[in-house]
Amino acid sequence: MRSKPVNHSVRNYRRGGGISLYSLIILSVVVWVCPQQLISQDLEVPYVATPDEVVNKMLDIANTGSGDYLIDLGSGDGRIVIEAARRGAVGHGVELDSRLVERSFKNAEQAGVSDRVLFVEEDIFETDFSMATVITLYMSNAINLRLRPLFFEKLRPGTRIVSHIFHMDDWKPDGQASVDRHNIYYWVIPADAGGEWEWETDGLTYRLSLDQEFQVIQQADIEVSESGNKPEISQPEINGDRITFVLKNERENLKQVYNGRVEGDSLIGTAQIHKDGTYQLVSWQAFRLR
Asked: What pLDDT is recorded for position 251?
């Protein structure tokens, strides 16, 4: 499974790309009139509040609730973390602006969820978010790409990621929604199932080769020892740490449905064996050769 390298030196930009001369004039007026509303200049992304209806949709698409630990990167006034806590989750927000961190604590207290949330003044690239089951963010395409390799390195397979407006380039989302023209993108961290796997079923040795890119199995091939009839493999899928695929041999009237979990260099699960009108459910374990 690959994660393309990206430029980690991107700085001093605005959401949505460049900024026009007209926008600079407007921004200058805003700075003169309302300096207290602006984040300090060293921040890479200006604070723009996520509409409440978008917050709800972001949490809906990730099915956020009891048992989840949500971390909001760039948490602003804390509204996403607070709404997640209302739904039974626990979590914290990461924010560079101390004023917004203070405001978030006050908002959480007013919402009655201060015992379920925490807000920290911290750089998101120095944050330990490995414990999260849900990550939310509203950053920029460039920052998302800088975070992407960290997500694959630190997050467990099955962790859900939701981004408001901004995508992850060639890592295509597992789901997508739109609220009043606000795009929402959803991903699930996939397990690394690429390589060659081997196991035995009914006295035969199977060798499975998988070529994986992000959550997509690009190519799958199967070889069976001591068998003149090579089965066809279909429906190979990765969903978090789960893997499924089907082997079918028409000449032998045999169909095998494999369902397992990726645990390091092992695949552990069950196989449904359908042959000549009979059915059998057996335990199954494969080992990665390389």
From this structure: 83
3-state class of 175 per DSSP? Answer: strand
Predicted TM-score of the model (pTM): 0.83
SS3 call for 111: helix
DSSP structural state of residue 90: E
Taking a C-beta distance cutoff of 8 angstroms, is the pair 195, 223 a contact?
Answer: no
Q: How large is the angle between the packed helices 79-86 and 52-61, nearest 10 degrees? A: 60
Quickly count: other Cβ atoms within 10 Å of residue 115's Cβ: 10
**Which of 277, 289, 270, 276 lies closest to 201, judged by CA?**
270
Q: Which amino acid is at 135?
A: I
258: how many CB neighbours lie within 10 A of its CB?
Answer: 23
SS3 (DSSP) at 137? strand
**What value does the mean pLDDT take over residues 59-79?**
98
State the Cα torsion 144-150-153-154 to the nearest 10°.
-100
Asked if 75 and 104 count as a contact pair (C-beta separation under 8 A), the reply is yes
What pLDDT is stored for residue 7 in this prediction?
34
Confidence at residue 202, expressed as pLDDT on a 0 to 100 scale: 82
pLDDT score, position 2: 40
- At residue 245, φ and ψ (nearest 5 deg) are -165, 165
Q: What angle do CA 256, 194, 213 make, to 5 degrees?
A: 110
- What is the identity of the amino acid at 168? M
Domains of the chain: 21-188 (3.40.50.150), 195-288 (2.40.128)
User: Within 10 Å of residue 193's Cβ, how many Cβ atoms?
Assistant: 24
Per-residue pLDDT tens digits for 108-139: 999 999 999 999 999 999 999 999 999 999 99
pLDDT of residue 287: 98
